[in-house]
Amino acid sequence: MKLSRKFFTSLFVSSILVTQTTPINADDWDYWAVKQNADATGKGYDFYTVNNDTGEATLRDTKCWVMPNYGGMCETGLGSDSAYVDPTSGDLWFTTPANEIYSYNLETDTWTDRGDEWRGNYTVVKPRSSVSNTSDGSINIGSGSDILLKKTSSGEYHIGQNSLVSKEESNTQKLWGTDSSGNKIPINIVDSELQIDGTGVQSQITSNATNITSNDTDISSNASNISSNDTDIASNASNISSNDTDIASNASNISSNDTDIASNASNISSNDTDISALQGLISTKSGSTTTA
After folding, report:
1. What is the pLDDT of residue 8?
2. In this model, does residue 78 exceed pLDDT 70?
3. Contact, 41 vs 71, CB < 8 A?
4. Under a CB-based contact definition with an 8 Å cutoff, are residues 19 and 30 in contact?
5. In the chain, what percentage of residues exceed pLDDT 90?
6. Do the beta carbons of residue 36 and residue 45 sit within 8 Å?
7. Which of 54, 127, 283, 290 is the most exposed place for a label (fewest CB within 10 A)?
8. How far is CA 170 from CA 14, 167, 173, 174, in A?
9. Burial annotation 42-60 (CB, 10 A radius, 16+ → b, else e)
10. Is the pTM of this model over 0.70?
11. Residue 180: partners with Cβ closer than 8 Å, 6 or more residues away
12. Distance CA 199, CA 194 (A)
């Protein structure tokens, strides 16, 4: 049901409006509102939750407390102190015109008889604030000694009693856990995956463990290959030294062969001349032969 702000103001004036300091569920509302049910037959009281920003009210329950000796009629009448929100549980407490007190739990949709109204013994009754400031500038949010959120004067944000702590320092957002003595302790992510930029940290650790095992095998194999290479290098060094000697010897032989080739070339040229002279001589002798 959607109510206008004007109607909400009228509701505020004509009924009990109680601030809900500790919302019970995730609904987007921040006030309780109570008014007499409009049915002519009399159905008791309507209990609403209201979003103060929009004026939207949701009927949560209609409750009738029967008046004795009135033929089953519901009690009527509301006072300025008929209802309040318990700061510890978040339940709505309601006092009937017969001075009986009941509490309503929205999460379970149940009413509980709380007996006599203790507040009637006091002139002024105010709930303890869930927010407190200390002289050093710290801010505590919680119920009594049960601190849910704390900001220290040093700029640390603590969640819970034994805290999860966060602090921005040197352009870095730091996060750590502490015990009841303030000592730093490990943070254990339980039954949920921790991701960094969408990548699971545990899956990377598992993958790296596999890679490390594979690398160990490769390192062992490489060590064996390096040892074999050392032997091959020593053998090759010896062969290179021997080849150096052979190359020097071959260079000397090549130089000697060059001289022999040059000498043989000269001899071949001289032989060519001698062969040519012999051929001429043989031809002359053959032409001067006569028959007797």
Report:
1. 37
2. yes
3. no
4. yes
5. 16
6. yes
7. 290
8. 54, 10, 8, 10
9. bebbbbbbbbeeebbbbeb
10. no
11. 161, 162
12. 8
Lowest mean pLDDT, pick from 18-22, 66-70, 118-122:
18-22
Query: CA-CA distance, 44 to 30, in Å (whole number)?
Result: 23
User: What pLDDT does 178 receive?
Assistant: 92
Residue 17 — pLDDT band, cuts 50, 70, 90?
low
How far apart, in whole angstroms, are the C-alpha atoms of residue 261 and residue 79? 137
- DSSP letters spanning 35-46: EE---TT---EE
The letter for the amino acid at 8 is: F
Give the pLDDT score at 26.
40
Instruction: Round the CA-based radius of gyration of the chain to a whole number and report it.
Output: 54
Residue 200 identity: G
Q: Which of 172, 187, 173, 208 is nearest to 200 (CA)?
A: 208
